[in-house]
Write a structure and sequence with these properties.
The protein has twelve helices and 24 strands. With 428 residues, it is α/β, with parallel strands linked by helices. Helix 5 runs parallel beside helix 6. The mean pLDDT is 96.
Length: 428
C-alpha cells in the first residue's frame, strides 16, 4: 500500500485557493445535461467523482466538452437523454449515483447502475422506495436495498405525494427534487421524520432555481414542483470553492498559525461554510471577506458540544481539532457518517485512538478527549475515504510525524490536497 509520511510541524501560514465544490459540481453537471440549451460551467472540480458523472453523461448521449482549464461546455438534452440503453459504472460517487438513479427512473430507458464494492454497501432503499411510489420500475440486482440497480421504462403517476425519509441521507431528497421536473407532472414530496443536512437541500434548490425551476417549500416537510417545469440553461455558471475542503486549511490556521482560504465567503450557498462559526466557538480568530475566510491561532482552544446536523462533512475536521482543545468535545447528530464512503464514526474513533485520544462513539455521536501528549509516528488507515486522509494530515501540526496510508484516496474530491497542505506547513 502506498504511504505518505508527514513530518512534525508546528506552524501553518499562507493563502490557499480552493478547488470547486463537489456537491455543486455534480449537481450543476446533471442540471446542465437536463436543460434546454448549452451551459458553460466554470471552476468545475476536477476529481474522481466529477469524472464519474461526466463519463455517465457522455454514455447517456450528452455532449460534454472541456474547453478550458476546469471549464466544461454541456449541451443539454432538454430533459430527454439520447441513449435509452446503457450500463453506468459510478465508482463510489454518491453525488453521481443517487441523482442519476432518480433521473434515469423517469427517462424511459433500460439502464444498469453499479459502483465499487463500498457503493454496493451504501443504502439506497429510501430513494428507490420513493421512486417506486411514483410508478418507477427499479430492481435490485444483488442485495435488497443496495446497488447495483436495474432501471426499466415505467408508467408514472404523481397524483399522490411521494414520501421519503429525511434522516438517512439528504442526497435522496436532492435526487428526487432534481429528477421530478422530467415527469412534467405536478409533484409533491413529503419528508418523513427530521431532515438531516438541510444546507445541502438549500444548495439543490438554489441551483434548480438558477436553471429555471422554482420549488415551493413548506418548511422542511413538503416540497412541490409545478407541472410542466422545465430546466433552461443559464448560459454560464461558476462553481463555488468547496466549503468542506476549506475546513482543513481553516483548522490548520486555528491549530498552528494563520491561513486564508480564497474561493468562498460568508455568503456561500454551502452549509459547510458554517464550519468557521464552530471554529469561533472553540476560540479561533475568524475573519471574512467577500471571497475569502481566514483563521488564526487563539491563545487556547476550548472543547465544544455541538449539534452538527448542518455541517456533516466538515464536522469530521472538528473531531481532529478536539485533539488540540481543552476538555472533551462532543459532536452530535452525525448518524449520516455511518453511511458515507466508510462508517466514519467507527473509522474516526479507531484512528483517533492511535494518536492517543480517549474516544466514545455512539449511534449518532462521538466524544473526543485529547491526550496529554499526541502519540508520534501513528500509521493512519484511510478506508478509501478522502476525508479521513485530509483530516488526519492536521495531526502533524501537533509537532508529531504521522503516516497516511493510501493518500491518493483524496483524488475523490481534492487531488492536489497534499501539495496544497505542504505549501502552508512550516516544519519544526
Amino acid at each position: 500500500m502506498e504511504q505518505l509520511s508527514l513530518p512534525a510541524a508546528s506552524n501553518a501560514e499562507g493563502q490557499i485557493t480552493l478547488p470547486g465544490s463537489k456537491s455543486i459540481s455534480n449537481r450543476t453537471l446533471l442540471l446542465a445535461a437536463l436543460a434546454n440549451g448549452t451551459t458553460e460551467i466554470r471552476d468545475l472540480l476536477a476529481s474522481d467523482d466529477t469524472a464519474r458523472m461526466l463519463e455517465a453523461l457522455e454514455k447517456l448521449g450528452v455532449k460534454c466538452e472541456n474547453f478550458a482549464e476546469n471549464a466544461w461546455r454541456v449541451s443539454g438534452c432538454n430533459g430527454k437523454f439520447p441513449n435509452k440503453q446503457t450500463d453506468l459504472f459510478l465508482g463510489n460517487a454518491g453525488t453521481a449515483f443517487r441523482p442519476l438513479t432518480a433521473a434515469l427512473a423517469f427517462s424511459e430507458g433500460h439502464y444498469l447502475l453499479s459502483g465499487v464494492p463500498r457503493m454496493h454497501e451504501r443504502p439506497i432503499a429510501d430513494l428507490v422506495n420513493a421512486l417506486l411510489q411514483a410508478g418507477a420500475n427499479i430492481e435490485y440486482l444483488e442485495n435488497t436495498g443496495f446497488p447495483p440497480l436495474k432501471i426499466s421504462p415505467a408508467s408514472l403517476d404523481l397524483s399522490k405525494p411521494l414520501q421519503i425519509r429525511g434522516d438517512v441521507s439528504s442526497q435522496f431528497l436532492t435526487a428526487l427534487l432534481m429528477a421530478l421536473p422530467l415527469t412534467k407532472q405536478q409533484a409533491t414530496i413529503e419528508v418523513v421524520g427530521e431532515l438531516i443536512s438541510k444546507p445541502y437541500i438549500e444548495i439543490t434548490l438554489n441551483l434548480m432555481a438558477k436553471f429555471g425551476v422554482d420549488v415551493v417549500r413548506q418548511g422542511w416537510q413538503r416540497f412541490t414542483i409545478a407541472a410542466n417545469s422545465k430546466y433552461k440553461s443559464p448560459k454560464e455558471i461558476f462553481v463555488e470553492g468547496d466549503a468542506s475542503s476549506a475546513s482543513y486549511f481553516l483548522a490548520a490556521g486555528t491549530i498552528a498559525g494563520n491561513v486564508r482560504v480564497d474561493g468562498i465567503g460568508k455568503q456561500s450557498i454551502q452549509g459547510d461554510v458554517c464550519f468557521a462559526e464552530a471554529l469561533s466557538l472553540m476560540g479561533s480568530n475568524i475573519s471574512y471577506g467577500e471571497n475569502y475566510i481566514a483563521a488564526s491561532k487563539p491563545a487556547k482552544l476550548k472543547a465544544i458540544d455541538l449539534d452538527c446536523n448542518h455541517i456533516p462533512d466538515a464536522a469530521m475536521t472538528l473531531a481532529i481539532l478536539a485533539l488540540f482543545a481543552e476538555g472533551t468535545t462532543v459532536l452530535r447528530n452525525i448518524a449520516s457518517w455511518r453511511v458515507k464512503e466508510t462508517d466514519r464514526i467507527a473509522a474516526m474513533a479507531t484512528e483517533l485512538r492511535k494518536v492517543g485520544a480517549i474516544v466514545e462513539e455512539g449511534a449518532d455521536y462521538i466524544k473526543v478527549t485529547p491526550p496529554v501528549q499526541l502519540t508520534p509516528n501513528a500509521v493512519i488507515d484511510t478506508y478509501d475515504d478522502h476525508r479521513m486522509a485530509m483530516c488526519f494530515s492536521l495531526v502533524s501540526l501537533g509537532n508529531v510525524p504521522i503516516t497516511i496510508n493510501d493518500p491518493k484516496c483524496v483524488n475523490k474530491t481534492f487531488p492536489d490536497y497534499f501539495k496544497s497542505f505542504a505549501k502552508i506547513v512550516k516544519h519544526a
